[in-house]
Design brief:
Layout: H1 5-12, H2 26-61, H3 72-103, H4 114-134, H5 152-178, H6 185-196, H7 198-203, H8 206-214, H9 220-233, H10 237-257
Helix pairs in contact: 2-3, 2-4, 3-4
Length: about 260
């Protein structure tokens, strides 16, 4: 029987050789997956916020121009940091002055080049700017520090509701288009936000957003003209004036040809 497998199976059956493994608890598996996914989603959101924060810190510390990627926000942040640094230096100078008065000895000043001065100022500003940026919870357009709302389990719970609302909105929009009705204010805003993107929309003020809505930016020709105007705004005054003169000449030339 030791060498006859068929006889062994007839006598003892297959249960002697094989046994089913214990069943895995399905609920525990689901909980583990949701916990892992929530942890990953938290770190992903943190990474998104950190990328914007690092770029803002670098732009402010190095005083980037618009052609380098500098923004009004980075300029304003640099001004705040400079004010804090100036106040700090004045306090230190006052303290050092009192010490020097009691000591009665003058220290020889070390002459620095322009590059060394800029580097020294940048090194002094960077920790101040970093501290200011850390206080910014939300940069807009979804670039915020992670909260409980960013956890996968929370997003999964709210997804059916948001998905349904999206379908309802698009269905109403299609019906109104078939009826050839005028665009409502809500439709114009949604179409504009989709055209320019959430980042551009969130970075603009209320007046700029209203202006964008009136431009029908979901039309490709209008979008191209708007993007060109946004790029021109970042140029220096000399380049802007040269561009405007060129556009006037092109407009006059086009009028004469007609």
């Amino acid at each position: 029987m030791r060498y006859n497998q068929e006889a062994y199976m007839r006598k003892y059956g297959s249960d002697v050789m094989w046994a089913n493994a214990p069943k895995t608890d399905t609920l525990m598996v689901i909980i583990l997956l949701l916990a892992t996914g929530s942890l990953i989603s938290w770190f992903v959101q943190k990474s998104h916020w950190q990328k914007v924060a690092d770029k803002l810190i670098k732009a402010a510390a190095e005083d980037w121009g618009s052609n380098q990627g500098g923004t009004p926000e980075s300029k304003a942040l640099r001004e705040r940091a400079l004010k804090i640094l100036t106040d700090k230096e004045l306090e230190e100078a006052s303290a050092n002055g009192e010490v020097a008065a009691t000591d009665g000895k003058k220290k020889k000043k070390i002459k620095l080049t322009g590059t060394e001065k800029r580097k020294g100022q940048e090194d002094s500003l960077r920790p101040i700017i970093t501290e200011l940026v850390e206080e910014m919870e939300d940069f807009g357009a979804g670039y915020h520090k992670p909260t409980w709302r960013d956890l996968l389990i929370v997003k999964a719970a709210f997804f059916p509701m948001s998905f349904t609302m999206g379908i309802i909105w698009n269905a109403k929009y299609m019906v109104r288009r078939l009826q050839k009705l005028e665009l409502s204010e809500d439709e114009r805003e949604v179409l504009t936000r989709r055209a320019v993107g959430e980042v551009n929309w969130a970075s603009c003020g209320e007046e700029e957003q209203k202006d964008m809505i009136t431009r029908d930016l979901w039309v490709s020709e209008n979008m191209i003209a708007w993007e060109e105007g946004q790029e021109v705004k970042q140029w220096n005054s000399v380049d802007r004036k040269r561009y405007l003169r060129m556009k006037k000449k092109e407009t006059k030339k086009g009028g004469k040809e007609e």
